[in-house]
Amino acid sequence: MSGERAVTEATRNFGKVAVLMGGPSAEREISLLSGNAVLAALRSQGVDAHAFDPAERPVWALAEEGFNRAFITLHGRFGEDGTVQGALQVMKIPFTGSGVMASAIAMDKWRTKLVWLAAGVPTPAYRMLVPGCDYASVIDELGLPLIIKPAREGSSLGVTKVRNAAEFAAAFEAAHRLDPLVIAEQFVSGQEMTAAVLGDKALPLVRIEPLKGEYDYQNKYFTDDVRYHCPAGIAPEIEEAIQSDALKAFQVLGCRGWGRADLILREDGSYSFLEMNTAPGMTGHSLVPMAARTAGLGFEQLCLDILEQASLD
Fold this sequence. Notes:
Layout: H1 3-11, E1 16-20, H2 28-44, E2 48-52, H3 61-64, E3 69-72, H4 83-91, H5 100-107, H6 109-119, E4 126-129, H7 135-142, E5 146-150, E6 160-162, H8 168-176, E7 182-186, E8 191-198, E9 201-202, E10 206-210, H9 217-221, E11 226-229, H10 236-252, E12 258-265, E13 271-277, H11 287-294, H12 299-308
Parallel strand pairs: 1-2, 1-3
Antiparallel strand pairs: 4-7, 5-6, 5-7, 8-9, 8-10, 8-12, 10-11, 12-13
Helix pairs in contact: 2-12
């Protein structure tokens, strides 16, 4: 069988595929980058894929226009919080990634922590913040530095590292402008890592090394001031333990399809999980494609594998 025919055989059952990108969230810019990369990859493999931006067209047009599957590359609210997943379920259009419940929980860092702590998944100590709360008591409990962030945003939006008490109020306001739910989290010193999950397997870990400043929104997507190491270059037994716990962290939230856990590895070999991403980035700087490449999976095949797992469950 020729390569062209093999591609046709492998993709003919996908039907008309919508690549959902853009959307109304604060992460729209990154979503468009991810979506266009996925769109190009699917089309290169013979998939009848089309861009669909829910910020520009009503989502029910997916049913009206006869789409058979949806590849979700929406990031942040509406894309990762269960909202669009619920709409797709109503329209009976199978979609990639986690379902309504898991998406909603994983988008909320507070409720993710509640589940993880109940299941024994290691995660940093935290406090929820409200306007006028006693900042001094939070600092006494969590220590300095600490991290303040919106509970339901991604891509490091609204995240501040607070090094002294004088920085607390401004950090809270920056997070609160994006989300009324604000979380203060104990700062964990160590190496930043990600553990991607594809189906029921954890992919090789990626170790992140910012060369300048923090691993923030700008460095994540728009600079080359970060080094990524995959293989991560850590002890095999530690990598295996992290991969095992990453799968656990993924499964106890009810996630399916694919995702990416972010974590910190301390010098003593212990680690703490920070969050679970249920629609990770697929840009040129993104970490799931990097981990997949190390596992022998090219970007086009990764996209096909994710699309293959599209479901209504």
